[in-house]
Write a structure and sequence with these properties.
Number of helices: 4
Shape: globular
Order of helices and strands: HEEEEHEEEHH
Radius of gyration: 16 Å
Helix content: 25-40%
Number of strands: 7
Distance between the termini: 61 Å
Largest sheet: 7 strands, mixed
Structural class: alpha+beta
Strand order of the largest sheet: 1-2-3-4-7-6-5
């Protein structure tokens, strides 16, 4: 029984060390899942989420159960999912928690997009998310990374599909990672 706790603690500490090397000190409060991720989707499991208030001009939320799981690695190893919001929004946290099980069977990588128009709140200008790698580090002896889900508008999605994600990232403000559900396009008029 203690060995399982020791392994869990070792894995947790390794993840937090990787996160904190990029994002600063983790907030004290952790959004613990009522049903642990390891119990599975069918039982309603969800990943824990850690937060970083001092990282950007918003609140950074990162899943914290995917590294060391059965997840298929992307081009930089296994990964956690992140989102940045301003204020007390929960939409993005729900998205990254929902996508956690998706990543066990499907690989997501930097620069890819995903249509989410059906999942956004009414009146939102966001039509899709683009995944942007915001950290690379070693964790549990392997390469690991964090992919941030950034909400993009219809015209940004179309631009990305035509010109590529790197060209879209160049149109964003420097180091842009914020998901603002009701923002104007960064492509201008």
């Amino acid at each position: 029984m203690n060995e399982g706790k020791d392994n869990w603690e070792m894995s947790w500490d390794a993840r937090m060390a990787g996160f904190e090397s990029h994002f600063g000190k983790c907030d004290e409060n952790v959004l613990h899942a009522t049903i642990p991720f390891q119990l599975g989707f069918d039982l309603g499991g969800s990943p824990d989420v850690v937060t970083f208030s001092s990282y950007t001009n918003g609140q950074l939320y990162i899943t914290s159960d995917l590294l060391g799981s059965e997840q298929k690695p992307n081009s930089h190893g296994q990964y956690e999912l992140a989102v940045v919001h301003q204020g007390e929004e929960n939409w993005g946290v729900e998205i990254i928690c929902s996508l956690a099980y998706y990543t066990l069977e499907n690989v997501i990588d930097h620069g890819e997009t995903m249509d989410i128009a059906e999942a956004v709140p009414e009146g939102s200008t966001i039509a899709a998310i683009i995944f942007r790698r915001i950290a690379n580090f070693k964790c549990l002896g392997s390469q690991a990374n964090v992919l941030c889900c950034i909400g993009i508008t219809y015209d940004e999605l179309n631009f990305c599909l035509e010109h590529g994600s790197e060209d879209l990232f160049k149109r964003f403000p420097k180091d842009y990672v914020l998901t603002d559900m009701y923002r104007k396009s960064h492509l201008g008029a």
